[in-house]
Amino acid sequence: MLATLGVVAVCYIAFAALVTLAQGKLIYPAPSGPGVDVPGFERITYTTEDGLEISAGYRAADPGQPTIVYFHGNGADWQSSVVATDRLVPLGYGVLAAEYRGYRGNPGTPREAGLYADGRAALAFLEERGVAASEVVLIGNSIGSGTATQLATEINPRALILISPFASLTRVVGEKIWWLPTKLLLRDRYENAAKIGDVAAPTLILHGDADTLIPHAHSETLAAASPNAELAIFPGAGHDLAWQDAAEMRVAEFLIALDAEE
What pLDDT score does 8 carry? Predict the structure, then answer.
């Protein structure tokens, strides 16, 4: 019996060590290569505070319209953000399809602090183009909700929109691997629920009730923590909600309503 327990303990420790060492690749399964060019979008670069040149995609807004800064999920790329905003572009909204270090040929290794730095560089790019924070709509899908939420606490954007977000990375990982001390093992945490109460901007949170990767209870937690949030739950929708027409149309309705209030 003692020998069996010893083997179990060794296996447990070994698996915990493996998860700890491999967490970067597990959390950030970054697509490699430069990806395809997208008609109507120019490839741009912006420089991060730690000196990395990040390549992304950009389409300027029509006069008087805001610019969406879109932060994609962990297994996607900036080109997928173009698809997720294809119903918004015809309305005149600009789109900066932001990219991350280590993704699509960009230098560096993705980490929480690094993605925040990449997001700040994207905003600095827009500022250089004459786009003020008040004309920026921050959208974060899945893990991109972490960067969008963080930046919304640092600037005063026109709006914050979160699609299939988590309350925190520590919570969602803990729900999946409940038998490991993930709070101790995780390097990146993305504590959205602890931050969203500091976001003054109008906020829209979208989630599918059939999302098995990040349960919609995470969005309910975020909405409860924000005095400015609207929550929309989509029946039958999974974690691919960001690319569904119904989600894009709900985003458009939200932004048009904000315009009407001015």
Answer: 47
Nearest in space to 87 (alpha carbons), one of 261, 232, 235, 250: 250
N residues, the chain: 262
Residue 198's CB is within 10 A of a number of other CB atoms, namely: 12
Residue 22 has pLDDT above 60, yes or no: no
The CA dihedral of 261, 222, 200, 154, to the nearest 10 degrees, is -130
Taking CA atoms, 72 is separated from 62, 63, 210, in Å, by 23, 26, 20
Q: What pLDDT score does 188 carry?
A: 95
Tokens of 179: 């038998």
Strand segments, DSSP code E, in the chain are: 42-47, 53-59, 67-71, 94-97, 136-141, 159-163, 203-208, 229-234
In the predicted structure, residue 85 carries a pLDDT above the cut 60: yes
* Cβ(102)–Cβ(110) below 8 Å: yes
Q: How far apart are CA 90 and CA 182, in angstroms?
A: 43
Give pTM, 2 decimals: 0.93
Task: Phi first, then psi: give them for residue 162, nearest 5 degrees.
Answer: -115, 130
Structure confidence by residue, pLDDT tens digits, 185-201? 789 999 999 999 999 99
